[in-house]
């Protein structure tokens, strides 16, 4: 999941059928990347939200057949925007299970 800020509503009167009537928001990451997200929670402009990507984004929508790869999942109550998010790498470690890595 990512933390992004809602910058504006996005109104598109003509869309592919797979988007249905999903609400759309323009969001910006802390690194300045601008994207469009579907918004089933009604996040207001200016708020920090957390969003999910990929196939999880479809599952977060009320209609899991919605064509989206970025969905707002919740509105963050408090976020210090002065503290940049720290990227962490999830690394598998070898625990000595004896499994061969061929």
UniProtKB/TrEMBL annotation:
Is Amino-acid biosynthesis found in the keyword set? no
Which PROSITE patterns does the record cross-reference, listed alphabetically? Answer: BMV
The domain of life is: Bacteria
| InterPro entries hit by this protein | CsoS4B, EutN_CcmL, EutN_CcmL_sf
SUPFAM superfamilies, sorted? EutN/CcmL-like (SSF159133)
| Keyword Transmembrane annotated | no
Q: Which Gene3D superfamilies match?
A: EutN/Ccml
Q: Where in the cell is it found?
A: Bacterial microcompartment
- Protein's name in the database: Ethanolamine utilization protein EutN
> What is the source species?
Tepidimonas thermarum
Give the encoding gene's name. eutN_2
């Amino acid at each position: 999941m990512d933390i992004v800020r809602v910058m504006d509503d996005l109104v598109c009167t003509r869309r592919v059928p797979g988007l249905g009537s999903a609400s759309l928001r323009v969001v910006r990451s802390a690194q300045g990347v601008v994207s469009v997200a579907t918004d089933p929670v009604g996040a207001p402009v200016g708020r920090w939200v957390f969003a999910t990507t990929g196939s999880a984004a479809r599952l977060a929508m009320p209609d899991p057949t919605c064509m989206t790869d970025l969905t707002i999942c919740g509105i963050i109550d408090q976020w210090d925007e002065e503290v940049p998010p720290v990227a962490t790498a999830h690394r598998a470690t070898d625990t000595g299970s004896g499994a061969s890595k061929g």
